[in-house]
């Protein structure tokens, strides 16, 4: 579970950051787009950098949806911000852009925020009591598992009573 | 006047993108663990599950709408203001919506991290 969390965070951040940098690299090839010749923008789809960037961003969206299928939104969102950190590093190394000290400060703050959330629980614990459909056996089972985290002794007692 | 117009566009953009994220999150919770579906039924089943979920399509339309708001806002204001302002506001707005609509347990740790990310994104334009 822990590994799964880390992998999905890395996938979201890397795909997001790399995708943006690849798009930027491709748009540099293309030159400025003017409103007067806007159909020019469709030639972007023939540029290999752009295609690679779109592949990366598709991967980002897939991993983002996967993460949302088993984790809270407030857990997943910081991972998308971590993409900016990847972008900052890649644009420094790959596009040779100057990254100011303020930007590095921003990168550090985002990293702290992401680290903080990633260490916490990924999903809100929910008690399924509000549904009203669950049978009493399920209630007892959930009570069992709840108690087992507190003390193994209480669990044994409960099992004894059930038997 | 023009700055009011710009901030209205940014506000709509922030609201649309955080509503979109909230809907996507709710939709994915309804579908269930995508990893499991893929390992049992394959990638095509994942795509069809996702595309058949109405909430997902609604969330996606919100995100597309927010993208057009972004383009509009960018045509009215500087990219160095619009992009980070909307991104950082979206983090805070999404956290608030996640707490009240999705009833997520947004504890102190998550508020702090949302604030850190928000300030961090703002610093990126300096």
User: Which structural class do the helices and strands of chain B define?
Assistant: mainly alpha
**Estimated helix fraction of chain B:** over 70%
The structural domain count of chain B equals 1
Most extensive interface: A-B, 36 and 39 residues
Task: Extract low-pLDDT stretches of chain B.
Answer: none
Indicate the low-confidence ranges of chain A by residue numbers.
129-159
Number of strands of chain B: 0
Shape category of chain B: globular
Provide the structure class of chain A: mainly alpha
Radius of gyration of chain B: 17 Å
- Cα separation of the termini of chain A: 33 Å
SSE pattern of chain A: HHHHHH
Number of helical stretches of at least 4 residues of chain A: 6
The helix content of chain A, as a percent range, equals over 70%
The span between the termini of chain B is 26 Å
Average pLDDT confidence of chain B is 88
Could you state the order of secondary-structure elements of chain B as H and E?
HHHHHH
Oligomer: heterodimer
* Major beta sheet summary of chain A: none
Instruction: List the total number of helices of chain B.
Output: 6
Would you give an account of this structure?
The complex is a heterodimer of chains A (163) and B (126). With 163 residues, chain A is an all-alpha fold. Chain A has 2 domains: 2-119, no CATH class; 134-163. Helices cover 72% and strands 0% of the residues of chain A. The longest helix of chain A has 29 residues, at 2-30. Chain A starts with a helix and ends with a helix. By secondary structure, chain B is mainly α. Chain B contains 6 helices and no strands. In chain B, helix 1 (2-31) packs antiparallel against helix 4 (54-76) and helix 1 (2-31) packs across helix 5. The longest helix of chain B is centred in the first third of the chain and has 30 residues, at 2-31.
